[in-house]
Amino acid sequence: MSDLISHFDALDKKLMLLLNGLHQPWLDPIMIFASARWTWLPFYAFLLGFLIWKYRLKVWPYLIALTLTITIADQMASGICKPIFKRLRPCHQPEMIEKGLYVLDHHAGRFGFISSHASNSFAAAVFLGLAFGAGWRIRVLLCWAFLVSYSRIYVGVHFPLDIFLGALVGIFTGYGVFKLLKNIKIKGEFLV
Fold first, then answer.
1. Domains of the chain and CATH, by start
2. What's the half-sphere exposure (Cβ side, CA atoms, 13 Å) at 26?
3. N or C end of the chain: smaller count of CB under 10 Å?
4. pLDDT mean over 45-64
5. What's the mean per-residue pLDDT of the chain?
6. Which residues 6+ apart lie within 8 Å of 83 measured at CB?
7. 57: alpha, beta or left, given left = phi > 0 and alpha = psi -120 to 50?
8. What's the pTM value of the predicted model, to 2 decimals?
9. pLDDT-derived band of residue 85, with 50, 70 and 90 as boundaries?
10. What's the rounded Cα separation, in Å, for the pair 161 and 70?
11. What count of other Cβ atoms lies within 10 Å of the Cβ of residue 61?
12. Cα–Cα distance, 137 to 3 (Å, whole number)
């Protein structure tokens, strides 16, 4: 079993160096911007405004469920996986730096498995995409989640496996909470 884990770790590191090595000087500030924690506040405000406009008086269950979605995704990543697995981020591994890792963000915590950025953004994208009626909206939201997630590899703070599994946690969380919301009954009527 340890040989299999070592094999996947080696593949993940090779893929990290390949994806992280796709740097272009003009792209660096864009990826730093996309990766920053507070960059997306105006986008989040727009999404909340759109959600409120779409559901008006019935928006409260959606807001509560969205909060629950992001909380679950975030706690799975930061509260459970990172403390259990304690996998160092690539930017905290000297051998990765020696092999040419391009690091643009030195402010990340020690552990990176799984990515909170990926789990949170994919959870919100899937939940909101379903709440907005899928179609082109969910594709736009998934592209946003992908950009946020890839930017974490680009700036040197997450391995591809951190991102992939974080995205899976987010997708399942967003979908699961949305389906739960759609099935809740209050006084014999469906909530939404």
1. 2-190 (1.20.144.10)
2. 0
3. N
4. 90
5. 91
6. 111
7. alpha
8. 0.91
9. very high
10. 20
11. 15
12. 43
